[in-house]
Amino acid sequence: MAKFRKKPVVIEAEQFIATRQKPPFFYEGNPVQLIQGEPHVQTLEGQLRVSDGDWIIRGVKGEFYPCKPDIFAATYETVEEPQAVDAVVTPVPLTTTA
């Protein structure tokens, strides 16, 4: 069987904690819904149950899906956002020697 490597893709994710009210990631469309008292997320494959501690991932096409914490830890790492630098650059005039 041929071997393949996952392409490096940056995703957005938020860990689902049952006691938390609407994590910030979920304000836009709030994908976690209660169905018969159990939390679910709408995926491309239909509704999937979300367990406490699962990560809810927004995929590259905007789709959502749950991921178990151990799989998430083995697959993803935190992306450090570049920080803005408040620096003033003062041009230095070139000098010529005659």
Describe this protein with a few key phrases.
3-stranded antiparallel beta sheet, 27% strand, 1 helix, 7% helix, mainly beta, 98 residues, single chain
Question: Can you lay out the helices and strands and say which pair or pack?
Answer:
Blueprint: E1 12-15, E2 32-35, E3 38-43, E4 46-49, E5 55-58, E6 64-67, H1 69-75
Antiparallel strand pairs: 1-5, 2-3, 3-4, 5-6
Q: What can you see in these coordinates?
A:
The chain has one helix and six strands. The chain has 98 residues and is mainly beta. It has a domain at 12-75. The strands form two sheets. The protein has a three-stranded antiparallel β-sheet with strand order 1-5-6. The chain is globular and about 45 Å long. 10% of the residues are buried. The mean pLDDT is 79.
Spatial sequence of strands, sheet with the most strands: 1-5-6
Tally of alpha and pi helices: 1
Q: What's the N-to-C terminus distance?
A: 71 Å
List segments where confidence is low: pLDDT < 50 over at least 5 consecutive residues: none
Query: Which H/E pattern describes the elements?
Result: EEEEEEH
- Chain-averaged pLDDT: 79
What best-fitting shape do the alpha-carbon axes yield?
globular
Number of strands: 6
**Which range does the strand content fall in?**
25-35%
Structural class: mainly beta
Helicity level, as a percent range?
under 10%
Computed Rg: 22 Å
**What can be said about the biggest beta sheet?**
3 strands, antiparallel
Short structural summary:
The chain has one helix spanning 69-75; strands at residues 12-15, 32-35, 38-43, 46-49, 55-58, 64-67. The radius of gyration is 22 Å and the shape is globular.
